[in-house]
Amino acid sequence: MKRRTFIRQMGATGILLGTGLSPALAFGDRPSNRLTILHTNDWHSRIDPFPQDGGRNAGQGGVVRRARRIEQFRQEAEHVLLLDSGDIFQGTPYFNLYQGELEFKLMSQMGYDAATIGNHDFDAGIEILDKQMNAHANFPFINCNYDFRNTPLSGKVAPYQIFRRGDLRIGVLGIGIELEGLVPTALTGETQYLDPIQKANETALHLKEEEGCDLVICLSHLGHRYREEIVSDMILAAQSRNIDIILGGHTHTFLDEPVIVKNRNDQGVLVNQVGWAGILLGRIDVVFERRSGKRCFSCANEWLS
Predict the structure, then answer these.
(1) What distance in Å separates the CA atoms of residue 216 and residue 210, rounded to the nearest whole number?
(2) Cβ atoms of residues 86 and 249 within 8 Å
(3) How many distinct structural domains can be found in the chain?
(4) Could you report the per-residue pLDDT of 65-99, keeping only the tens digit for each?
(5) Residue 27 falls within a domain, yes or no?
(6) Global pTM?
(7) 22 lies in a domain?
(8) Is 120 part of any domain?
(9) In sequence order, what are the beta bridge partners of 286?
């Protein structure tokens, strides 16, 4: 498995280049202060590896490989979060036949902690999405900028979740892309789209100030970057406050390493996305230094082949 690795140190004063030491050596290897974040995006119902047909992705990906690697990480690290940034559905006959049942069953078996909702997750209609979530997903879906009142998902999608890992409180919020013009209204019902930057900042402020979270993660299905002035992860990061990490989806962007963007408070926000189809598994390790308030981030995204 090929790995792409970087080390950065981030704190209240902004961004500093890493020392070359591992996070454990830089800040002391106390497990209660270390978090491993594993993340995926844009599964698109790719259950099997790509066929060995000579194509660009031949033999890569596959749920079995991903599940085995996730289990290895859990054996190696005490505190792990497994997250997904949407578009779980659509792309292979598995979705056409089972309408998301298989994907949610597999994610539940792999122990996903949370996911946000992508535009293709509405492709069988909001009623089917609700049915499959209720029957087969034992993890929460989170989104703070879709208003699901007067839809089957009313009251079933929280704006955020808080996870405890050792001494750490991790806040995770979700945001989604504008659905109008992208998904037929017959599939989304009366779902209302709200400003993602405003809602993300409101939710992140609540998580930091009122809930006392040590880290705030945004699961985004906005897309990494556009030529036009469309709201993207890069724009969100630059206009954000209190968000530490943005884990993106939608544009199928394979990043060589996470991008660091200065937010409105001149603090660094780490932005990552790992392509599509489960070819790449994202991994971010965070080590917290309580006395200084600094956090050291390392990334080792892995190709599953």
Answers:
(1) 12
(2) yes
(3) 1
(4) 999 999 999 999 999 999 999 999 999 999 999 99
(5) no
(6) 0.92
(7) no
(8) yes
(9) 35, 297
